[in-house]
Each structure stands twice: as C-alpha cells, then as structure tokens.
Design goal:
single chain, mainly alpha, Arc Repressor Mutant, subunit A, 64% helix
Length: 142
Amino acid sequence: MRPDGSVLWLLGRASLRAHHLMNERFAAVGLRKLHYITMKAIERATQTVTQAQLCRYTSIDRSDMVALLNDLEREGYVRRAPDPANRRRNIVTLTGPGHTMLEKLDAIAAEARDVILGSLSAPERAQFTEYLERIVNDQDCR
C-alpha cells in the first residue's frame, strides 16, 4: 500500500525496483550495478581518469571505489597504473576484456530498462527520461 499522492514514495519504489532488477541481471555475469557504473565512467572519460576522478564522477565513496576496482582488476576488466605526472595517483583504464564485458553489461542494462519501462510507449519513455534528467540535473535539489 502506498501513501496517497506520494510521488517521492513512487520514485523510491521505482528506483528500488530498477536497482534490484539490474543487480539481479548483472549477478548472472558476476558483477553488480556499481561495477557497471564504474566501468561506464571509465569508458566515458575523455582523457585518462584517476581513481579520485572516478569517485567524483560517480559519487562513489573512495573506499568503495577501491573495492570495486579491486574486483574489476582481479577479473581483468580494468588496469591501474601509477600516473607518470604524479606517482601517488593511479590511472584507471579498461582492458580489452573490460570493453567486451562492458558491451555485455550495456545490453543487460538495456534489457532491464525495457522491463522497467515496458508499460510506457516510446514517446512516454522519452518524456519520462527527460523529466528524470531534469530532476537529477536540478542544482537546487543538491
């Protein structure tokens, strides 16, 4: 039962449902949603990216990021190397197998998105996505 008129409750429930669905599907390949978010941030970086930058880009805590990168490095999906400009920093890159896995994760995420948004028409999906982007990007909400 939901509280009457509670859009925040509905947003929370939708988010929870999406989170569970993505983690369930990513678990089938031995990863979690945060692994995907991290790999996607590395891929989208326009230049080399450090661990600290990944934390800022993804809003993932530093210690959590270290654990995520440890997992991804152990699986061979990312490589960390000292930054030649500052040896106290690590530069993180996707490996060949990392790019391959990211393509697989992109497909899994698209399938999960289609499940979550399955009751919406294509125009409704586009409008819903636009509304969510406006909410997320609203600086006054931060």
